[in-house]
Give the backbone structure.
Amino acid sequence: MEKLIGLKKIKTAVFISGTGSNLKNLIKFAKIKKTPISINLVISNTHKAKGLKYADQSNIKKKIFNFHNISNAEKKILTLLKKEKIKFICLAGFMKILSSNFIKKFGGKIINIHPSLLPKYKGLNTHIRAIANKDKFAGCTIHYVTAKLDSGKIIIQKKITVAAKDNPTSLAKKVLKQEHKFYPAAIIKIFN
Ligand code: GAR
């Protein structure tokens, strides 16, 4: 647990690759009074990420990096993060794996949201796997990012029940609803 220094908000970058509903939700969260963060930068690995529009709508600086050459992209991102004085990174549907070198060089905290009850279902297609295995429970996990995929220390995990009629799409929708509730809760837990 850490105390916030005065009323200064922690400069945060959100990394996305897709729809950006978590980004949208975090932008909303960063505007409320009790929030510990301000969102100053949105980074994506693709121009196609629909969520980039939320950065535009809130006048947040956005930047797209081509990950064809990962080390090159990470080097450029680190320079930008330093320039913008970013101290905290939230991965929100970011589909690239950050290297241990990046994590070490950034130095600040990096957290991720994952749509499963980790350590179950690391990686992709979590809901398809949960339905195929007839799991009774699913959920989401907010965890620290380490060099090992989806394996860092868990901050918050939310468990939900899988209904008999659920399919991967309906389950994803249910879990996403919880993600929007618990990603901000995890951030409060870290900094308050
Ligand atoms: C979310 O369900 C998030 O947990 C997941 O991608 C979705 C992004 O949705 N992340 C991962 O699978 C990371 N491995 P969003 O773009 O609407 O926030």
User: Anything to note?
Assistant: The longest strand covers residues 37-44.
